[in-house]
Specification:
Elements: H1 3-27, H2 30-54, H3 65-86
């Protein structure tokens, strides 16, 4: 098993998390949604980086790293706001 194998599986897990996050968002469960944003963004960051390391010709994936980082940052920001509201 090589890096591409693991990157592909991480991408599948990431997509599953994001689909579930959309369901949770519609249900209004914000705390879980923010944790799923962090997990999905982190997995996407890792999987896309691995795919670019394995196949440099897909360097365009690097442009999505900004979106992944933003998802993690906004998930953390949302959790912090919820903690302040609940306190």
């Amino acid at each position: 098993m090589d890096l591409a194998f693991w990157a592909n599986w991480l991408t599948i897990v990431q997509v599953s998390i994001i689909l579930y996050k959309q369901w949770i968002t519609a249900a209004g469960k914000l705390r879980l949604m923010y944790w799923l944003m962090i997990a999905g963004g982190g997995l996407g960051f890792i999987s896309h980086t691995l795919l670019v390391v394995v196949s440099p010709e897909v360097w365009g994936l690097l442009s999505t790293l900004t979106l992944m980082f933003w998802s993690v940052a906004m998930g953390i920001k949302g959790l912090r706001r919820l903690n302040r509201i609940e306190a």
